[in-house]
Amino acid sequence: MPETQFTAAQLAVPPRTSSIRSPRPVVRSRIVGENHTLLYEGGRNRSLYRVVDGCVVLSQLLDDGRRQITDVLGPGRLFGFTVDGRNIATAETLSVARIEPLGDADLNADDPAIARELKATLHRMQAHATLLGRKTASEKVASALVELARLFNRAARNGAPARLSFHLHLTRADLADWLGLTVETVSRCLNRFKREGLIDFSHPKTMRVLDPERLDATAGFSRQRANDAARP
Amino acid sequence: MPETQFTAAQLAVPPRTSSIRSPRPVVRSRIVGENHTLLYEGGRNRSLYRVVDGCVVLSQLLDDGRRQITDVLGPGRLFGFTVDGRNIATAETLSVARIEPLGDADLNADDPAIARELKATLHRMQAHATLLGRKTASEKVASALVELARLFNRAARNGAPARLSFHLHLTRADLADWLGLTVETVSRCLNRFKREGLIDFSHPKTMRVLDPERLDATAGFSRQRANDAARP
DNA sequence: CGTCTACTTGACACGCATCAAAATTGGTGG
DNA sequence: CCACCAATTTTGATGCGTGTCAAGTAGACG
Question: CATH assignment of B8-109?
């Protein structure tokens, strides 16, 4: 996995003093890296971040290189939570991303906004566990598309009802590592969906949902939604 | 103290047959149910609980009955977190369990202990996502045994280094739903481990670890541990 | 225009699911 | 204590979905 390493200077953690609640003196949001910039590894980092723009993924590795992407974060989401002062996972950006440091992760423990974010994350993780453990390859890929369309749908700004076109920040390999599949299976599913008229893409990263209802159905979302709270 | 709102209607929908107790005007800690007592369903409940004794599992259902157990909770763990006032998952006890209501889930949002618990839960969920997405059946079952041995190891009380014998609160079906496998595969793995001298059991629920190191190795824990923080 | 990486597509293999049935365990009542 | 029935667990035979291996195509970038 080709990932540009952060230099020591780049990895330097932001000032410990800043807190989420107190207004920060300077705008610290910054543009990070090109594709696949490693932000920190498990256990190495102590700051909380917010994704301002772009896409960040959290992952874990097994001995032999097997990788699991445990979460995909779009604009607004927080990451960098620690347990016993150590980071839970490895974080890296996909494509160009802007992230905003929020200060020491441990100091914010009692912020209600943090608790809310944690619970929302937990919620997503549970839905994803169900996907990983109990869904077929087609359902997994369809679910991922629905999820990513919601995260990265452009045209959410202007009044127009948003043609469901979005930038797939993830590569096929990333998708595979997120969904517990292989690159080939992901590719086959996407192309089958394309043949069947569910989605379309000319460029492999520019997705467009043609038939949202059938895609939702393929994802097997109906009951899970009732089971869940409203998906945020 | 919020009284737990069990109605016959709510309790009448368990995913599997279970004898259900009528609710008692709750005080503090109490003994709940026999096997498989449904505590609440997704979206129905608003209280936080702590597991005092026994075992509680959280799960989600798909349309067609496929079930995923998203977390297995032993003594000390909290559950009942809400997102937008709705519960994240369905909770049920396995075997006899004592749980302790802690009050309205929303009111505790800024308690640092709650944040810590949430982060620990998140941590476990991420490790489990890696298991679900990237481990083989043998690795999954071995991991489960290691995890459950840690949770339910008896003899933790007396000074003795504890023969690794513990009560498997989960049925084979529960294990399967936790690990994303089928009953048959779980059973085959357990019996293979038994033949190979990794574990032993005469009664299907009474497990004993004979060779902790090899079991750990089979679970594929080495690197993941480096990746993780110390496992709590 | 050549090279590199990501993606696609095909042929094949294998791990785990599925189906079926026997063995064991648990619970209940005599 | 034993007889009986339901549920759980085990075991075997077979098949399918997805992984693996391999080759080919398309963009990106010099």
Answer: 2.60.120.10
Angle at B120 between CA B117 and CA B121, to 5 degrees: 85
How many CB atoms are closer than 10 A to CB B49?
A: 24
Contact check, Cβ <8 Å, A60/B128 = no
Nucleotide D9's nearest residue (CA vs C1') is B187
Q: How confident is the model at residue A8 (pLDDT cuts 50, 70, 90)?
A: very low
Exposed, middle or buried: residue B133 (CB in 10 Å: 0-12, 13-18, 19+)?
buried
Per-residue pLDDT tens over the stretch B157-166 = 455 555 689 9
CB contact under 8 A, A61 and B119: no
- Which nucleotide lies nearest residue B170, CA to C1'? D8
The enclosing H or E element of B50 equals: strand B47-61
Cβ of residue A138 near strand C, that is under 7 Å?
no
pTM above 0.85, yes or no: no
Q: Is A35 exposed, middle or buried (0-12, 13-18, 19+ CB in 10 A)?
A: middle
- CB spacing of A130 vs B179 below 8 angstroms: no
In chain B, the residue whose alpha carbon lies closest to the alpha carbon of A181 is: B133
Q: Report CB contact under 8 Å: B130, A232.
A: no
For residue B94, give the H/E element and its range. strand B90-104
CATH 1.10.10.10 domain range(s) in chain B: 134-227
- CATH 1.20.210.10 fits domain A125-227: no
Q: Where in chain B do CATH 2.60.120.10 domains reside?
A: 8-109
Average pLDDT over residues A191-195: 97
Calculate how close chain B gets to A139, using CA atoms only, in Å: 12
The fold of B134-227 is: Arc Repressor Mutant, subunit A (1.10.10)
Measured between CA atoms, the residue of chain A closest to residue B117 is A83
Cα–Cα dist A53/A74, whole Å: 7
CATH number of A8-110: 2.60.120.10
- The alpha-carbon gap from B86 to the nearest alpha carbon of chain A, in Å, equals 6
- Number of residues that make up chain A: 232
Residues A68 and A181: their CA atoms lie apart, in Å, by 10
Residues of chain A with CATH 1.10.10.10: 125-227
- CATH 2.60.120.10 in chain A: give the residue spans: 8-110
By Cβ distance, the residue of A89, A178, A180 closest to B126 is A89
For the ranges A4-8, A37-41, A50-54, A159-163, the maximum mean pLDDT occurs at: A50-54
Integer distance in angstroms from CA A67 to C1' C15?
20
Cα A212 from Cα A201, distance rounded (Å): 15
